[in-house]
Amino acid sequence: MSAVEVVSPQQSQSRQLHKFGGSSLADPDCFRRVTRILAQYSGETDIIVVSAAGKTTNRLIEWLDLLSKDGRLAHETLQTLRKYQQDLIENLIEGEQKQLLVDALYEDFSVLAQTAENPLTDAQRAWAQGFGEVWSARLLSALLTQLELPAVKLDSRSFLRAERGAQPEVDRASSWPLLKEQLIQHTKRRIVITGFMARNTEGDTVLLGRNGSDYSATIVGALADVSRVTIWSDVAGVYSADPRIVGDACLLPLLRLDEAAELARLAAPVLHTRTLQPVAQSCIDLNLRCSYDPESGSTRIERVLASGRGAKIITSLSDVCLLELDVPRSHDFETAHREIERLLTRNQIQPLASSFSADQHRIQLTYTGEVVNSVLEQLQNACIPADIRLREGYSMVAAVGAGVTANPVHCHGFYQQLRSQPIEFICESGCGLSIAAILRKVNTSALVSDIHRALFQAQRRIGLVLLGKGNIGSRWLNLFAEQKVALEKRHGMSFELISVQDSDNQWVDFDGIDANTVMTRFDEVAKPYEGSDWLTALLNHPYDDIVVLDVTASAPLSLQYTDLAEHGYHLISANKVAGSASGELYHQVQDAFAKTGRFWLYNATVGAGLPVNHTVRDLRESGDQIIALSGIFSGTLSWLFQQFNGEIKFSELLEQAWQQGLTEPDPREDLSGADVMRKLVILARESGLDIEPEQVEVQSLVPESLSALSLDAFLDNSSQLDEALEDWLEQAKKEQGVLRYVARLSRDGKARVGIEVLPEEHPLANLLPCDNIFAIESQWYRENPLVIRGPGAGRDVTAGALLSDLNRIASLLK
Fold first, then answer.
1. What are the pLDDT digits (tens) for 739-750?
2. pTM of the model
3. How far apart are the C-alpha atoms of 297 and 566, rounded to whole Å?
4. Which of 275, 354, 651, 662 has its C-alpha lying 20 to 30 A from 44's C-alpha?
5. Is residue 679 annotated as part of the catalytic site, yes or no?
6. Which residue in 679, 733, 734, 750 is the catalytic one?
7. CA separation (Å) from 473 to 139, 478, 479, 669, 711?
8. Coil/strand/helix, residue 444
């Protein structure tokens, strides 16, 4: 979504689908939380797919298993489950509807008990396991309707068609018209659909596998042509490792489709193995979010193929099984190998990992316990010429990421951490997306932590994107070229400039751009772009992190800041527009970076290289309270008024300042007071004040007749500035003072920027040309304000501020 499309989901006209897992529906508070999410993030025609509440499906399976072992325990298990479901209803539903739901629940449990009086067929067991989803859909639709969010429940078996198998696949051709018919019947209401289930041609329930609700969510989303599917669970998305195991695991705000598919194939719990198939075959956007904390960030699955150069995720399974096939020496091993490969592909039962040892005539296939017996049965029925054994008690750890098998650092780190482990075999995927190790039972948590540390605390590769190559941008390029080696040595990371752009053209090279050649080669190499095309050109970058440096004054670029956060990029900004925009946009940008765990630093927006933003923020975060701010915030206006004594016309001084790069690209940004106003708003927000730009009283030095002219025309007619400023100068001389352009902010929110006549001995009057001065009054510095003073304009100090922020981001990434 473009950053300018800051529209609440409920305002969108396109249908979306929301899926809630069992942990999101575990108790009454969870159900209430889900309704709040749907009230905020869903529209009136959206689809909701639900799993069974909490551990309901596990309890049903436990009951089914106990039926043939211990009738008393089976009865107690079923009664405990009934009480759990009834308590949900009692705590959530009011009025007559409560009794209707309780009656329906009792009827269901009566039917279950009666059916269980005789041995159950496989079809009946599947039917029984599906009741958890039915109860969730019934309860949630009633609760939404009670809260004046009209909703209707829909059993997925009424339209999803599939045949039984190890990995049942939904028949889209027969399912689509049935779903379309249902959607036509239910307009202007949210539709709550059961997950996990379909029906075959004989009318029996077909379960789509454990965690199959995610798959049913994306398949329903594709059939219903929704614009977005959001899977809400107890985690915010995909992390670099399980955050419950690895404390410093980081959320990945963006994951490419092939990497996500590989992670799902390896049975990672955050993604079901077939969840992504409908995404790849449609235009669905897939988001993963946390129902417990909706604003904690998310992972978006991009429908593009990755061309990365290393691991992004370490995943594990603590309990996997091996199917070991020994081919008789009398048979040709390669022929048997090909026959087995064809069978696995035809039946869509590819293993998590495999080993083919021609010298031992042995094939090893790894599966989860959920599917291994079904696969074993299919292999036996196919009369494969091999002795087949099922071996249990194994673990798997894997590193996932595009190009991981070709990354020598990551491969070495992975193998090194396994050198003392009881390895059965190691398998590198043919597509280069993963390395998986199968081991006899080990502590996978400790191993995952060790591998994560070894791979991701190795040298990080940071890609740098420079937006703007004017006065400041060109100086930063020189500074970066000078400091690159020292920067890399200081942080133990590599930094490569991978993109430079101006307002019309972009130069991208993922192998790195020599900063010394940018100004001479840019016109030759760069290509035109429009709008956000420059972001698309960066999608398949191979770097661990991307840092974007915005040294423009572009308002359209500032509107793309939320896009940068959603793509997982860090941002260093000298562009003041976003920081001083409306409070709504400013907080949207702040929230976007906070949710994705990315950094937005903008010390260069105020005071150039002076540590003003950092100081104000540190005071506030240390428990101090800012009472007032004042000073001379514009190095440009500081220089101009220091020089302006009547000997040289103000317009001539302005021409000098512009030529020396002391002004904004358009000096009217300085003269209008807009630049000072923006800095004051940014500092006010850093100090904890909620202020809007319109609240600042601004005195502009630009006559109305010059405000609409082109830059060249303005400079040609700048002599019109002289008359008014000479009057001000005359007044200052009468008062035996000097002119200064001063910014002031008090704790009550009163703010003003404009010309003041100050006594010659005033602290704000005695500065060197280009100096800024910031006086900070706080609870701790009430009697004697904290003063920060130094150069506040110029290419060198601003470029230095950008490099300082880059150092800070590098330190934060360690």
1. 888 999 887 778
2. 0.66
3. 9
4. 275
5. yes
6. 679
7. 59, 9, 10, 18, 20
8. helix
